[in-house]
C-alpha cells in the first residue's frame, strides 16, 4: 500500500488535525457549524426514520435497533467531544509544546523516540482511513449490486425481488422495499450517508487513539530523561532534575486534559457496548440464530474491538505512568546530593499515584475493566432472560 509520506516528522498529529478541520472540530472556530450540520444530517437521515416509522417485523427491528445504537455511539460521542473543545485545544497545544522541547533541547535519543511515535501514529491513521474508506464503499456498493443483480436474473415479471437495504429503516414516505424507483432514490441518498457515518466513526477512533498514545509517549520521554540523568555533569544535575520535574508536571497536565475531554465519551462507549452485547445474546437465546443476527454480529465485533482498543491504550497509559517510578528506582539516586534525593522522592511519590483515563469519573479505562464489563454484561443478560 502506497501512502503519502509524513511531510514534517516533528509535527504532532498533523493528519488527524486536518481531518478534524474538515469536520469543524479544529482550527477556525467560525467553521464549527460543519460538525453540527453533519450531526443534523445524521438525525434526519438515520435517527428520525428509525424512531418514527418503525419496522415490519421483529428481526428487522432487532437489526435496526442495533444499527441505531452502533451509529449513535460515534455521533453522540463526537457531540460530547465538541463540547470539550477548549480543553482539547489546550491538550494539543501542550503536546505540541512538549514535542518542541524534546526535539530542540533534549538528547537525540529522546527526539528519535518522538519522531518514531510521529511516524507510527501517522502511518496507522492513514492505513486506518484507507481501510475505513474501502469498507464504506463496499458497504454501499454490495446492497445495490445484489438488488439490481436479482432484478436482472428475474424471468417472471410477477416474481418479487427482495431489496437489500443499507440501513434497516423506513425512509420517510419512500417505498424502498417494494418500488425499484424509490429504491434507486434511496441508494443515491445512502451514498453520502454511509460515508458520513464512516467519516464520523473514524474521526472519533483516531482522535482518542492518537491523543492517548501521545500522552503515553510524553510519560515515556520523562522516564527516558530520568535514565539519562546519571550521565549529566554534577554541576548541572540538579538543574536537569528540576526540568524533569517540570516536564513530568506538564505531562500530568496533558493526562488531566485528556481525561477531562474524553471521560464522558468513554462512559457512553461502555454503556452502549454493554447494551448491544446484552440485546444480541438475549435475542439469540429467545429466537435462535438467523441471518439477521449474523449481520448484527458484524457490528458487535466492530464495537467490541473499538472498546477493547480504548482499554488497551488506557492500560498502556497507566503502565507508562508507573514507568516513571521504575526509572527513578533504577537510577543511581544514592549518588546524588541530599537535595536531589528529596526531589526524587517527591517525584517518586507523585508517579506512584494511579494515572489514566476514566469512564465518567467512575472507572479507569483499561483491559481489566474490559473483562469486568464482560462479566457485568452476562449478569444483565441472565436477569433479562428470566423476564422472557
UniProtKB/TrEMBL annotation:
It comes from the Eukaryota. It is a multi-pass membrane protein. It is found in: Cell membrane. GO terms for cellular component: plasma membrane. Keywords: Cell membrane, Membrane, Olfaction, Receptor, Sensory transduction, Transducer, Transmembrane, Transmembrane helix. The chain crosses the membrane at residues 35-55, 127-148, 264-286. InterPro entries: 7tm6_olfct_rcpt. GO terms for biological process: signal transduction. GO terms for molecular function: odorant binding; olfactory receptor activity. Its main location: membrane. The keyword rRNA-binding does not apply. Pfam families: 7tm_6. This is Odorant receptor 3.
Amino acid at each position: 500500500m502506497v501512502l503519502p509520506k509524513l511531510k514534517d516528522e516533528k509535527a504532532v498529529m498533523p493528519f488527524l488535525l486536518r481531518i478534524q478541520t474538515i469536520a469543524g472540530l479544529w482550527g477556525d472556530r467560525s467553521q464549527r457549524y460543519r460538525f453540527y450540520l453533519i450531526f443534523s444530517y445524521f438525525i434526519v437521515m438515520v435517527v428520525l426514520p428509525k424512531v418514527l416509522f418503525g419496522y415490519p417485523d421483529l428481526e428487522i427491528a432487532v437489526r435496526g435497533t442495533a444499527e441505531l445504537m452502533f451509529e449513535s455511539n460515534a455521533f453522540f460521542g463526537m457531540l460530547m467531544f465538541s463540547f470539550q473543545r477548549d480543553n482539547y485545544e489546550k491538550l494539543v497545544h501542550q503536546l505540541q509544546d512538549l514535542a518542541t522541547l524534546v526535539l530542540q533541547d533534549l538528547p537525540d535519543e529522546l527526539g528519535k523516540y518522538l519522531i518514531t511515535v510521529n511516524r507510527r501514529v501517522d502511518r496507522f491513521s492513514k492505513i486506518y482511513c484507507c481501510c475505513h474508506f474501502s469498507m464504506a464503499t463496499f458497504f454501499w456498493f454490495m446492497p445495490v449490486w445484489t438488488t439490481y443483480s436479482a432484478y436482472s436474473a428475474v424471468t417472471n415479471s410477477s416474481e418479487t425481488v427482495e431489496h437489500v437495504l443499507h440501513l434497516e429503516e423506513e425512509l420517510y414516505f419512500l417505498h424502498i422495499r417494494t418500488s425499484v424507483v424509490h429504491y434507486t432514490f434511496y441508494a443515491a441518498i445512502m451514498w453520502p450517508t454511509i460515508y458520513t457515518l464512516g467519516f464520523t466513526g473514524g474521526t472519533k477512533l483516531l482522535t482518542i487513539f492518537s491523543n492517548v498514545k501521545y500522552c503515553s509517549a510524553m510519560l515515556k520521554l520523562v522516564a527516558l530523561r530520568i535514565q539519562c540523568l546519571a550521565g549529566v555533569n554534577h554541576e548541572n544535575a540538579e538543574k536537569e532534575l528540576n526540568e524533569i520535574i517540570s516536564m513530568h508536571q506538564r505531562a500530568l497536565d496533558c493526562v488531566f486534559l485528556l481525561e477531562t475531554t474524553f471521560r464522558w465519551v468513554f462512559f457512553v462507549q461502555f454503556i452502549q457496548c454493554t447494551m448491544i452485547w446484552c440485546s444480541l445474546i438475549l435475542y439469540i437465546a429467545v429466537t435462535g440464530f438467523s441471518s439477521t443476527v449474523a449481520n448484527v454480529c458484524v457490528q458487535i465485533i466492530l464495537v467490541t474491538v473499538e472498546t477493547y482498543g480504548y482499554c488497551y491504550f488506557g492500560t498502556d497509559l497507566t503502565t507508562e505512568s508507573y514507568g516513571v517510578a521504575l526509572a527513578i528506582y533504577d537510577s543511581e539516586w544514592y549518588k546524588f546530593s541530599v537535595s536531589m534525593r528529596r526531589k526524587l522522592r517527591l517525584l517518586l511519590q507523585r508517579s506512584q499515584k494511579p494515572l489514566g483515563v476514566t469512564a465518567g469519573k467512575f472507572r479507569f479505562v483499561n483491559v481489566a475493566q474490559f473483562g469486568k464489563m464482560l462479566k457485568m454484561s452476562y449478569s444483565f443478560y441472565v436477569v433479562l432472560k428470566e423476564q422472557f
